[in-house]
Design brief:
The protein is of the alpha+beta class. The protein has one domain. 18% of the residues lie in helices and 19% in strands. The strands form 2 sheets. Strands 1, 4, 5, 6 and 7 form a 5-stranded mixed β-sheet that branches. The longest helix is centred in the first third of the chain and has 16 residues.
Amino acid sequence: MGLFDFLRGKTPEQKRDEKLNKIRLLTSIKEQRSLMHDMILEGEHDYSKQDENPNGIGEFGFDKTNPIPVYGIDNIPAYMDKLRYEYTSKSGSGTKTYNPVTFLRTTENDNSPIGSQKPSEEPFASSTTATNIEGLIDVYSIYSMGGEKLAKIYINCYSLKTSDKVPNGFFHRDTIPAIKDGKLLMELMK
C-alpha cells in the first residue's frame, strides 16, 4: 500500500463488500446472556468456555460424546445462524453459494436418512446423555433451505460459551465471502 492510496476511491467491489458486511452484522442472530444462566451454574455443566468440550470424544457435533457447546437453549438460534452449507446452482453455471440451515429438535433414535424431507410437523424430541459430558445433550436434524436433511447433530446447552466451531461439512458464516452468503443475498432481494 502506497503513501497516497487513501486518495483513491474504493472500488465497486469494496463498496459492495462493505455493504454486505454491514447487512451481515445487522441480520446475524447475536448470542445473549442465557435465561438459563443460573440453572446452568447450579447443575452439571461444561465450564471450560472452549469451542469444543475438552472431554469430547469422537467427531465434533456428530457424536453425542462430542456435542457442540451452546450457552443455553435460548442461544440455539444464534449458533444455527452461524452454519452454512455449500450449494451449487443447478442452472448449469456451477455458481456456489453458502446457504443458511433450518433445523428441528429430534431424538437420538431419529434415523431418517440424509436427503430425506423435513417433516411437516414437529417430531417428538428428547435429550440424551453421555458419560463423558456434563449436562443433557439435545439432538437436532439440520435441513437445507429446500427441506432436505443434511445431518443430525448433538448440542450440549449446559455450557458457558457458544462454540464458534462448526461440524465438518458445514461452513461458518463469518469465514465465507459475503457475496457468497445465501442469507445476505436473500436480504438484498427483499
